[in-house]
Amino acid sequence: MTSLTAKDKEVVKAFWAKVGGSAAELGSDALARLLVVYPQTKTYFSHWKDLSPGSAPVKKHGATIMNGVSDAVGKIDDLTGGLLSLSELHAFTLRVDPANFKIFAHNILVVLAINFPDDFTPSVHVAMDKFLAALARALAEKYR
Amino acid sequence: MVVWTEFERSTIQDIFSKINYDVVGPAALSRCLIVYPWTQRYFGGFGNLYNAAAIMENPKVAAHGRVVLKGLELAQKNMDSIKATFADLSKLHSEKLLVDPDNFKLLTDCLAIVVAAELGEDFTAEVHAVFQKFLAVVVASLRKQYY
Predict the structure, then answer these.
(1) Is A125 in contact with B35 (Cβ distance < 8 A)?
(2) Residue of A37, A121, A123 with shortest CB distance to B129
(3) For residue range A75-134, what is the model confidence (pLDDT) as tens digits?
């Protein structure tokens, strides 16, 4: 896997500026889709009463996750360093199998395609895909 | 054997009736070649694939995108026997075209994204789930003859 080029970072930042304040809502949609399209992911949320799309915990947590992604855009020049504590959280406390990061990334891309059909061009798509893969790698850093 | 609920059958039918084949096929294939550039290895005879713009304007890519979508339509019309319907196609991809089957998932991921953009709000989580299931069955059927 190659690392992010200067061009990639530019494209990601420019596109994310367009996403702006809708990030929270998009995150909720992406998480809702994860639970519906890949039901095996529900195992991580057995402590929630309601796992349906639009439920309070799904909405809130989707927003939390996507705010983390927004934060990562700001730390794009050093994802490993910037996401260190989040990586420790996922590795030691949450223990989410990193394969799920890929699935979640796919759902983020689907949600972006739905909401930005004209801006989410193939060139933006490849930059975002690379960024989310780099994010996933940074998040998996402390696992072993 | 794959079991389809009534909702799943009607959803797939609905998707195929709504999407524009001339847009979705070419868009999905060109996106695959752009986002996962190593997939270009299978299209040496297609001419200029040098950058995103070239790929999106390449008439051979567009034509082949339509061929791929026609193949998916074949699956949609034979939902209860996709494996059997695709037996020859699977052989073609494994023995003649020598395509690494991991590539099928890359293309179907792009298809999901393109259809999502086409259908917008109509591509709800439930519709999304059905479409991914359909694509997973298609991919498994295409992989079937490999070993």
Answers:
(1) yes
(2) A37
(3) 999 999 999 999 999 999 998 989 999 999 999 999 999 999 999 999 999 999 999 999
Residue type, B24: V
- State the pTM of this model: 0.89
Put simply, whether A56 touches B (Cβ < 8 Å) is no
Q: What is the dihedral of CA B120, B125, B131, B135, to 10 degrees?
A: 110
Which pair of structure tokens corresponds to residue B146? Answer: 């490999």
Checking ipTM against 0.90, whether it exceeds it is no
Instruction: Assess whether pLDDT exceeds 90 at residue B1.
Output: no
In contact, A75 and A69? CB cutoff 8 Å: no
Q: From the CA of A85, how many Å to the nearest CA of chain B?
A: 30
pLDDT of residue A50: 93
- What the block records as the tokens of A129 is 């895909």
> If phi over 0 gives left and psi between -120 and 50 gives alpha, with beta otherwise, what is residue A52?
beta
Q: The tokens of A38 are what?
A: 């890949």
Q: Please answer yes or no on whether B34 and A117 come within 8 Å at the CB atom.
A: no
